[in-house]
Amino acid sequence: MGITTKDLAQLCGVSRTTVHRALHGGGRIHPDTKEMILHMAKEYDYQPDLLARGLVKGRTYYIGVVVLDVQNRYFSGMLNTISREASKRGYYINITLHDGDQQQERDQLTRLAAYHMDGIILSSVNEGEAYREFLNSLGMPIVSVDNKIADGIPFVSIDQRQAMAEAVQLVLEKGYERIVFVCPAMQTKGAQNIYVHQERRKGFEEARKGHPQVEVQYLLDWSYLDHIEGLTRDAKRTAFLCTADDFALEIMKQMREKGKNPPVDYGIVGFDNIDTLKYISPKLVTISNSVDRVSAAAVNLLFQLIEGKREACGQENTMCEILPFELMEGETI
Amino acid sequence: MGITTKDLAQLCGVSRTTVHRALHGGGRIHPDTKEMILHMAKEYDYQPDLLARGLVKGRTYYIGVVVLDVQNRYFSGMLNTISREASKRGYYINITLHDGDQQQERDQLTRLAAYHMDGIILSSVNEGEAYREFLNSLGMPIVSVDNKIADGIPFVSIDQRQAMAEAVQLVLEKGYERIVFVCPAMQTKGAQNIYVHQERRKGFEEARKGHPQVEVQYLLDWSYLDHIEGLTRDAKRTAFLCTADDFALEIMKQMREKGKNPPVDYGIVGFDNIDTLKYISPKLVTISNSVDRVSAAAVNLLFQLIEGKREACGQENTMCEILPFELMEGETI
DNA sequence: ATGAAAGCGCTAACAG
DNA sequence: CTGTTAGCGCTTTCAT
């Protein structure tokens, strides 16, 4: 393709080592030689071969990012933040998708390791001890976002349970008599990042305990849209509590077609605060997952691991960061 | 990190070449030796170093994708399609963002070239002869999406002009008396993929020619939202023709706050058919950019260039594909 | 101040 | 059927 250091050396009548010194400033080199070499380098548009450099240096200044899907608003926000944070530090990112497939996630990770990524940010659909072993075997710094994979794997997240509990609190304060908990994601084990949904559900269960007078219904599979209307036919004031904004949007869309809208006909709360919401009316009550902050924190943590060589996968002290969330006001409750 | 072929050779008491043969099946090798080596490879979880392989083979089975931003619905759709199409063929993608910055785009491309990507899919904010030179100097197959960069650079797109012309036709048929052409993207040269907007504008100009009785207004800068209301105060039936759905959504949002909604108070048409629209009511009339088809075609074209070695950057015959678009029915006109 | 030589891990051409 | 050798392009150590 382009010109190599060998070619440059020949053109300048010096050795490759000298060329290297001119380009990187190591050791003593005569100013004139240096200038001449740099001039030639520019002249012939020398570009270092990054594969070769990576091979010998053992680092590539790349961080690998493995997520489910770029089309998901949540992930695309994350990728933007990660990309910018990384490039501030002179790193680039290599984005790959696992599409919710557990094996694909493993494959992507081994490939990224084989390409000598300096670190990994991972939104996993795997978990457990065996997977921890696997991750450790890759021998590279890894930070998990949202998902607690296993003890010893650093992760960054918000307090999902607490967030959901506050949502429940809000709904109860408004006097709703029936809560429908919507979480179809749990059905497809492995095809979603189910950990966060599990946590949200736990938060829900804890919060409802103190309020036995409130009726609770669950919609836990992908046919949830078929049951929405039946649940809003009687006089009981009903609120839908969804573990993701997407579910809430689908419900609102379907109800609107029947001429029913929140907060008059029913109440509804989402989760994540995806930015599609800014175009939606009425404004959905939701919880901001603070994707920017979570992503930025993940990058920071990863760089500590990479550069400070802070025990990447220490068994004892799981490094994790729990960040604040925010209950977003809206018009649907 | 892991084990190398050298280690394996030592462990098995053979040469590295034999190990290589066992793993890749070239040449004659004794079945027993092969089995033994493969067994050992599994045992010690051998993973080839992809940097080293790329260095020697000159190919990485990676294609680089350079786009403005992942958060833009249009690009995220594109990335999903490209990723899936590529992995069907055993390739992976390396996604990088240029954030609308012309220099950053160049930098990303040179870096991707330095990493020996086998090909590039590019949504550019650059254009012209000088840039063509630059792209050619990279010496790798490149396909541009949407944007005709220069003669000789293959590209894939829909017929933007024709699409916009049809939108104009539709608006006129509905009897609107004033058309407001909304295209703030043109203002920030270099910060958007302005080529497509230019084309759309040309399509608009051509289509309006035959209809001098219709009043035409332009909103061509980012303060467009400030002028919306003034344009809908009189009795004239007004339609907004936007060069992107995002602009249309912003307008609808603002108007809704004033209690005005399409199609009663005004008409509005978007462009791109981003998938956020499915949650929006009333349903926006728009033009489907067929992002899936465009992306898939781009990947196909790129693979023809990569594998068939079809003249990557032939001056004479620009390889381009113009795909069909679709005018999407809706309720806002 | 400069150069020679070795090596990263893999592949490929040529011997035996 | 197997091994030896050379080389991808870069960095690094040790000599001069």
Give keywords.
homodimer; Rossmann fold; 42% helix; alpha/beta; DNA-binding; six-stranded parallel beta sheet; 12 strands
What does this structure look like?
Two copies of one chain form a homodimer. With 333 residues, chain A is α/β, with parallel strands linked by helices. Chain A folds into three domains: 5-48, no CATH class; 59-157 and 291-324, 3-Layer(aba) Sandwich (Rossmann fold); 160-288, 3-Layer(aba) Sandwich (Rossmann fold), CATH 3.40.50.2300. Chain A has twelve helices and twelve strands. In chain A, helix 1 (5-12) crosses helix 2 (16-24), helix 2 packs across helix 3 (31-43) and helix 5 packs across helix 12 (291-307). Chain A is elongated, with a radius of gyration of 26 Å. Chains A and B meet through helix 4, helix 5, strand 2, helix 6 and helix 11 of A and helix 4, helix 5, strand 2, helix 6 and helix 11 of B. Chain A binds a DNA duplex (16 and 16 nucleotides) through helix 2 and helix 4.
Give me the number of helical elements of chain A: 12
Quaternary structure classification: homodimer
The CATH architecture of the largest domain in chain A can be given as: 3-Layer(aba) Sandwich
Broad structural category of chain A: alpha/beta
Number of strands of chain A: 12
Share of β-strand residues of chain A: 15-25%
In the residues of chain A, how many domains can be counted? 3
Overall, the morphology of chain A is elongated
CATH class group of the largest domain in chain A: Alpha Beta
CATH topology of the largest domain in chain A: Rossmann fold
Helix content of chain A: 40-55%
Order of helical and strand elements of chain A: HHHHEHEHEHEEHEHEHEHEEHEE
Question: Radius of gyration of chain A, rounded?
Answer: 26 Å
Lateral arrangement of strands in the main beta sheet of chain A: 2-1-3-4-5-11
Ends apart, CA distance between termini of chain A: 62 Å
Give the overall pLDDT of chain A as a whole number: 91
The CATH superfamily of the largest domain in chain A is identified as Response regulator
Unreliable residue stretches of chain A: 312-316
The largest sheet of chain A is: 6 strands, parallel
Biggest chain contact: A-B, 48 and 47 residues
